[in-house]
Amino acid sequence: MRKRNHTVTIRMNKAEYNLLQNKVKESGRTQQEVVIKAIADLKIASAEEVEELKRLNQMFADILCQLRGATTNINQIARKLHTDGEIPNDSMLYFLNKNILKYRKESERIWQLIRRLISGQIHMEQ
């Protein structure tokens, strides 16, 4: 008696079929073994995980926008320094450093959430 008694038929285009055949050839396994291994190792994100990743992506986009503003300020300071020989005052440097550290800390927090989400260690923290 067969252990695997269910048959699954799938359709592929030429490129997908060639990719499958290349994977089979590279692995030295049967086509069945390659497909079953791929399915067994595959992590499919839930709808909630996808939404959380979208939210985190938007947070990164916002931080990136703020960092662009900070780097624009730094470039303006550098340009002023080179053209006028003026050195930015301590309060300006402190302000820029404080903002950059804030964005860096927030980015690190988001990266940690993404890593934990991908590894399956958390269930959708909101």
UniProtKB/TrEMBL annotation:
Organism domain of life: Bacteria
Descriptive protein name: Plasmid mobilization relaxosome protein MobC
A Pfam family of this chain: NikA-like
InterPro entries linked: NikA-like
Origin species: Dorea hominis
